[in-house]
Amino acid sequence: MQYNYTGWIFGVDKTTAEVKTVFITESGSFAAPEDGTFQGGGGGAGIWQSGMGFSTDNPNRMFFVTGNGLGHENQELPASGRSPLGTLDECIVNVRIDQTTGKLSLQDYFEPYEYISLDAGDRDLGSSGLTLLDPATFSGGSVSRMGVTVGKNGKAYVVNLDNLGGFKQGSANGDAVIQTITMPGGGSIFGGVGSYPLEGGEYANGFQPP
């Protein structure tokens, strides 16, 4: 690691400029310790998203996507996206926004089943933010709110915004997402997903809901 690229989110009072809340993507006993220098320390899971902003569909929650890290708290053990996780590397993250205090807390997440190898190969998920699909146009089965992200691993993940998928919650310990699309050639993707409903609303960057 060449520098500390841990993701931090600050909530600032618009009137007083006071910092009201802080959320960090790598914390707890599994996070790599910081040594205070530019060249070392910190756990990773930076939030860069190729310049995309955070996503939100109501005042109570916000979504973002993280890059590679070192903590690996989940190791290879399946985990619910609703369970606490201090090392949010390679994750789509849903944080709750407390409307009274402004405090942010982890509400749900998705972490690809191969996240450790993605970390090792610098093929991080966080090279894009999460694009929210218009629920008035895009839906499938019982899922009414969906999002899409892409990564340096050459995959696009279509997720249920109300149940992102956790870690290894799918069939045979795979990903519990709506659909995974592998890009031709498997090249890295830097940038956001765009959606176009066409006449009748069926596709979002090649995705066709069931």
Spatial strand order of the main sheet: 3-4-5-6-10
User: Number of helix segments?
Assistant: 1
Structural class: mainly beta
Radius of gyration from CA coordinates: 17 Å
Q: Quaternary state, please?
A: single chain
**What pattern of helices and strands is seen along the backbone?**
EEEEEEHEEEEE
Count every beta strand, where a strand is a DSSP E run of 2 or more residues: 11
Strand content: 25-35%
Shape: globular
Mean pLDDT: 87
Distance between the termini: 42 Å
Report the major sheet: 5 strands, mixed
Low-confidence stretches: 202-210
- How many domains, in number, for the residues? 1
Helix content: under 10%
Briefly, what is this?
By secondary structure, this protein is mostly beta strands. The chain has 1 helix and 11 strands.
Word description of this protein:
This protein is mainly β and 210 residues long. It has one domain. It has 1 helix and 11 strands; from the N terminus they run ββββββαβββββ. The strands form 3 sheets. The protein has a 5-stranded mixed sheet, with no helix packed on it. A 4-stranded antiparallel sheet has the order 7-8-9-11, with no helix packed on it.
